[in-house]
Design goal:
15 helices; binds NADPH dihydro-nicotinamide-adenine-dinucleotide phosphate; Aldehyde Dehydrogenase, Chain A, domain 1; Aldehyde Dehydrogenase, Chain A, domain 2; about 20% strand; six-stranded mixed β-sheet; alpha/beta; seven-stranded mixed β-sheet; Ald_DH_C
Length: about 525
């Protein structure tokens, strides 16, 4: 345990009534808020303050089947898929307005359930609203192609039809943001959905349900289940009435979901883990690069698939650069997620904190060098882990290639860009990476050779609804966001037409007998 005085720790204040009153909800199936058929409740306690923050009806397999049935019937009825793009777009815009009108409530609930700093939660809800509005523009622009080059008596066209019923399974680290990377695009395409947020952080997803009806989403188009992935995952991934599964979470669960879904050839989209490198060249903008490394690893307490969890530093500057990262890390405020200026809140749950501590212990066992932190911070409540930096001499060591998902930076050195790129590509993941250099050749070489869905040059973890997001290798399948994201939720149909009389018969009376 680490003494809070040894880190930049911000203690807790007494909570206000609004902050301490738990959010409660039932399931949302076929346009109604209903109890789960087991009658059981799930409870979420704040990972910072320890009090009850959310209490929810718990869905079981029977509820999942009811939700799938509702989504299927809603899709087949055409109540949503037959609307014009303009109608769907207007409803998505109303949903965005509805979220915006309750921005502070959404942000507080998100912060309370995840432990993330309130200001960050607010930024994420604002970002999510922007994504809903962006998806609304795509609803009006979805179209196919026509082919006029098939001969004088042929015309071909492709149309994009909504895929059908989509199961959306989301994780606990960015509950509303990740939901917003999936659901509005599925709706823009004309699909219906069953959504299952992580049980630990269901609040903002079910809160959305309270907006859908007034925005004009017909019953059954969106159904929200709260409950464990082990129970609900199988029907959501295997039921023949589901056409697609979109999942964000760990690579291991993603593999299981993909295997289940592939048995009935459902379309799958997977956003999985990462072990994302930031490459620091000697000619980098020093201050900006140090700041980006600190931001990259501690943002969301490192519980982030995009976390810059590996820094690869040119050996000529490594000692000084890492010393600067250590000093800046000491300035990072950790603790009370409701306090101004706090950047790092608690870990999501006790078991996960223990896992992260286990990785730190393993690193020390393997001879890696702990430069900062490495311990839990002593406090009456709250699962706080001190910002941690570990320098490793061996890129084969466990902390250099496994996703730790905590505020733990792994530092490695390299001698030239080729070696840096080889280290960057040496894990099973390929989600994102960055390079810091003023030399355009270095930057473009790295961006071409690194196997990752996103490469940032002299910046880190920027994101825009316009730009696709997703991973190479075991970091995922498919892309979210961007103008093509809505197409992920469509099926292409080819329509071929003949003009005029048909002259070339396959069998003709003039054929030799
Ligand atoms: P999971 O992959 O277990 O959880 C993600 C989602 O999948 C949750 O909604 C979860 O539900 C659900 N789920 C769990 N088991 C199944 C299943 N058998 N079938 C279908 N869905 C299932 O991640 P964890 O929450 O356990 O986190 C573990 C690790 O995953 C982290 O340490 C991190 O490495 C990684 N992770 C990566 C994320 C990313 O953004 N890439 C996000 C979150 C985690 P429920 O939790 O309610 O049971």
């Amino acid at each position: 345990m680490m003494n809070p005085n040894d880190v930049n720790f911000v203690s807790h204040n007494a909570l206000t009534e609004a902050q301490s009153t738990p959010f409660q909800s039932k399931l949302y199936i076929n346009g109604c808020f209903c109890e789960g058929s087991s009658g059981e409740l799930s409870s979420r306690y704040s990972p910072a303050f320890g009090h009850l923050v959310g209490q929810y009806a718990q869905a079981n397999e029977a509820d999942a089947l009811t939700a799938i049935d509702a989504a299927r019937k809603a899709f087949d009825s055409g109540v949503w898929s037959d609307k014009t793009g303009a109608e769907r777009s207007n409803i998505l815009l109303k949903i965005a307005d509805g979220i915006e009108s309750q921005l502070e409530e959404f942000a507080l609930l998100e912060s309370m359930e995840t432990g993330k700093p309130l200001q960050q939660a607010q930024d994420e809800i604002v970002g999510s609203i922007d994504i809903w509005r962006y998806a609304a523009t795509l609803a009006r622009n979805l179209h196919g192609d026509t082919y006029h080059n098939l001969g004088s008596n042929k015309v071909g066209m492709t149309v994009r039809e909504p895929l059908g019923v989509v199961s959306c399974i989301t994780p606990w680290n960015f509950p509303f943001l990740i939901l917003s990377q999936k659901l509005p695009f599925a709706l823009a395409a004309g699909c219906t959905a069953i959504v299952k947020p992580a049980e630990l952080t269901s609040g903002t997803t079910i809160k959305l349900a309270m907006i859908l009806e007034s925005a004009g989403v017909p019953a059954g188009v969106v159904n929200i289940l709260i409950g464990s992935g082990r129970t609900l995952g199988a029907p959501m991934a295997t039921d023949p009435r589901v056409d697609m599964v979109t999942f964000t979470g760990s690579t291991s669960v993603g593999q299981r979901v993909a295997a289940q879904a592939s048995q009935s050839m459902k379309k799958i989209s997977m956003e999985l883990g990462g072990k994302n490198p930031q490459i620091i060249m000697p000619d980098c903008d020093w201050e900006a690069a140090v700041d980006a490394v600190v931001f990259g690893v501690y943002f969301n307490a490192g519980e982030c698939c995009n976390s810059g969890s590996r820094v690869l530093v040119h050996e000529s500057i490594a000692d000084d650069f890492l010393a600067a990262v250590v000093e800046k890390s000491k300035l990072v405020k950790v603790g009370n997620p409701l306090a101004d200026g706090v950047r790092v809140g608690p870990m999501i749950h006790e078991g996960h904190l223990d896992e992260v501590l286990g990785y730190i212990a393993k690193a020390e066992e393997q001879g890696d060098n702990l430069l900062l932190g490495g311990q839990r911070i002593e406090h009456d409540t709250g699962l706080y882990l001190a910002p941690t930096i570990i320098r490793s001499a061996n890129s084969g060591n466990v902390i250099c290639h496994e996703e730790i998902f905590g505020p733990v930076l792994t530092a490695l050195t390299f001698t030239d860009l080729d070696e840096a790129i080889a280290i960057a590509n040496s894990t099973e993941f390929g989600l994102s990476a960055s390079i810091w250099s003023k030399d355009i050749d270095n930057c473009l070489t790295a961006s071409k050779k690194i196997q990752a869905g996103t490469v940032w040059i002299n910046t880190f973890m920027d994101g825009f609804p316009e730009l696709p997001f997703g991973g190479y290798k075991q970091s995922g399948l498919g892309r979210e966001l961007g103008r093509l994201s809505v197409e992920e939720y469509t099926e292409i149909k080819t329509i071929q037409m003949h003009i005029g009389e048909r002259t070339a018969m396959w069998v003709s009376s003039a054929d030799p007998s």
